[in-house]
Amino acid sequence: MLNRQIHLVSRPQGLPEENNFKLFETHMPKPEEGQVLVQCLYLSVDPAMRGMMRDIKSYVPPYQLNEVLTGEVIGRVSESKHSNFAPGDFVVGRLGWEDYSVCNGENLRKIDPNPAPITTHLGTLGVPGLTAYFGLLDIGKPQPDETVVVSGAAGAVGMVVGQIAKLKGCRVVGIAGSDKKTQYLINELGFDTAINYKTTENVKSTLKEACPNGVDVYFDNVGGDITDSVIKLINQEARIVLCGQIALYNLEKRDVGPRLFPVILTKRAMIKGFIIHDYEARYQEAITQLSEWIGQGKILYNENIVNGLESAPNAFKGLFKGENLGKQLVKIAD
Amino acid sequence: MLNRQIHLVSRPQGLPEENNFKLFETHMPKPEEGQVLVQCLYLSVDPAMRGMMRDIKSYVPPYQLNEVLTGEVIGRVSESKHSNFAPGDFVVGRLGWEDYSVCNGENLRKIDPNPAPITTHLGTLGVPGLTAYFGLLDIGKPQPDETVVVSGAAGAVGMVVGQIAKLKGCRVVGIAGSDKKTQYLINELGFDTAINYKTTENVKSTLKEACPNGVDVYFDNVGGDITDSVIKLINQEARIVLCGQIALYNLEKRDVGPRLFPVILTKRAMIKGFIIHDYEARYQEAITQLSEWIGQGKILYNENIVNGLESAPNAFKGLFKGENLGKQLVKIAD
C-alpha cells in the first residue's frame, strides 16, 4: 500500500498556484518504538501556512521544498508503539498532508468524538477557536456595550470572535467578502451588522454608520486598507488584536499604507500581536468553555469541507479568494 | 502697566512660521475671589503644542485663533485671593504665554525651589520627566540586559528615558539629530551608543550594529522612517511606547510608510499610545523618585534657555529643526 503526500515543490510568488504543490506516492511509514501511526482523516487549511511557504525565519521554521507539507490534522491511530495512544483513538496535532503520518506523540492530543463532531477540533475547539477565545478575551478584553469589529468575520476565527463578543454583551460588526457571508453572520450568528467590503462603495463611511459609538475592540484578521478604515474610528483606550494579516500575505513586496501611529497615540490605544501557542498552558480552560457554549447552542459553526487529499492545494488557494464560509477542511478518509 | 501675550493668529500649514504668532499688549489682569495672579517666569516650549494648533478635536481642544497660547509655565504668585496660594509661592501649571496670568488654582501646583532649580519642574521633574518615567516603566517595562532604543533621545523626554533605562540595567541606544547631541548622550549621560540619523548613511544597518541582540523596548518620540527602521529590529514580546510623532506633526497630509503590522504580529509585540495626564494620580511617586535620582547625580539634565517672551515663537519653530539639546525654555522674568 502506498502513502500519498502533498509536497511543496516551489515557493509561491504572490498568490499560491496549483503548480507550487505536487502529489507524491511513497511507501507506507512504519512506527518505531515510542511512535504512533496515524491515519489522517481531515486536514485544516489555514492562511498562516502561507507565511511558512516563504524562505524566511519566523516564529516557526519555513516549509522545506520537496518535503511533505504539515498542518493541523485530525486522525485515527492505526498502530501505536506509544503508551499514551491506542489503535482507534481520535487525535489532533501537527501532522503531514498525507494519508498516514508517523509521529512521536509530542503535540498530539487525544480528542473525544462526543459530543461535538471531531471536525470541530480543527475549528471552534481547535486552533481557530482557541485563537478567537484568547485573542478576544485576553487582549481585546471586551466590556458590555462596547463595540467590537472583526475583520475576516466569516472565517473560522472571526465567527467565534463575533459570537463570544455577543455573549459578552457587545455590539458586534463583522467585515467579510460576500453577501452570503454577511447574511450568515447577521441572520445565523447574531452579529449586529456586517459589511461586504467587496461591494460596499465607501467602506469607511459605512463602517462609521455601523459603529455610531466608535470602535473599542478591533480583532484584525486581514490588515491593509480595511484595517486602516477601522483604526480611524477607534475610541480612547481601544484595543487592537493583531491575529492575521491575510490581505498582505501574498504581496511580493512590503505594502505601504497611511501612517496611523498618531491616531494610536492620541487615542492611547493598544495594539498587540499574539501567537496562539503562547497560550498552550491554558488551552483546556478554553476548550471547556467553548464546548459548553457549543453544547448550549450559544456558539454555532460552519465548515467548508472538500473531499480528497488531491483537493487540498486548491482549497488552500481558495482561502485567499475568500471562498470559505467558516473553517476550510479537506476530508481524506472516513 | 501692560501685559504682553503671544497669540496664535493663523494656523500653521506645515512647519510653524513666525507670522502664525503675534505679540499683543493688553491690560493687566486682576484676580477675583478664588483666583491667583501669577507672574510668568519660564515657558515650556513643547512639540505637542503643534497638534493643538490644528483645528481638530484631539485629547485636548485646539487653540483658538486670536487668543493667548497656553502651555506649561513656571511662575511666582504676585497676588492671591485663593486660600492655597500666597504671594511669593513658586508654582507650575498650564497658563498663558504672557507676562501675567490669572487662574483659579486648578491644575496649579506649588513647587519647592530647593533642592533642584525651579526650571526642572518644566523638564525632568515636570511633564517631560513624568512622561519618560511612566512611559518607560509602566508601558516599556525594561528588564536588566534588555536593549532599549529611544528616538528624540536628546530632547527633554528622551534624555530621561535613556538615563532611567541605564539605571534599570539596560543597553541604551539613542537616536538624535546632531553629533553634538549624540556625543552628549554617550559622554555625559552614559548611553551605550547614539546614532546621528541626519549624517548616518544607512540608519537601519547602523542601528542593527548598535543593537546586536535586537530591540526589546522602543520609546518613540518621532515616528516616520526612524520608527520603521527600529521596528524591523524588534525582538519577541517587544514593547513600543508611542510618546510622540514629531516627524509627522508638520505634514500637511497623512504620510505613508511600510505596513509593519506583520512584524508586530509575528513578534507578538505590543504598541501602546499614552497621554501623561492619565497618570496624574501617580505624579508624586514619580517626582519623589526622579528628585532622588537628580539629588544623587544619577539623572542629569540639560536646558536650552532663550530670553524674552518675544523669542517664544522662534524657539517653538526651532523644536522642529532639532535645535534644542534637552528641554527648550523661554525665560520671561527673573
Automatic annotation (TrEMBL), chains A, B:
Listed name of the protein: NADP-dependent oxidoreductase
Keyword Oxidoreductase recorded: yes
InterPro entries: ADH-like_C (IPR013149), ADH_N_2 (IPR041694), ER (IPR020843), GroES-like_sf (IPR011032), MDR_fam (IPR045010), NAD(P)-bd_dom_sf (IPR036291)
UniProt organism field: Salicibibacter kimchii
GO molecular function: oxidoreductase activity, acting on the CH-CH group of donors, NAD or NADP as acceptor
Entry keywords, A to Z: Oxidoreductase
Domain Enoyl reductase (ER): 14-330
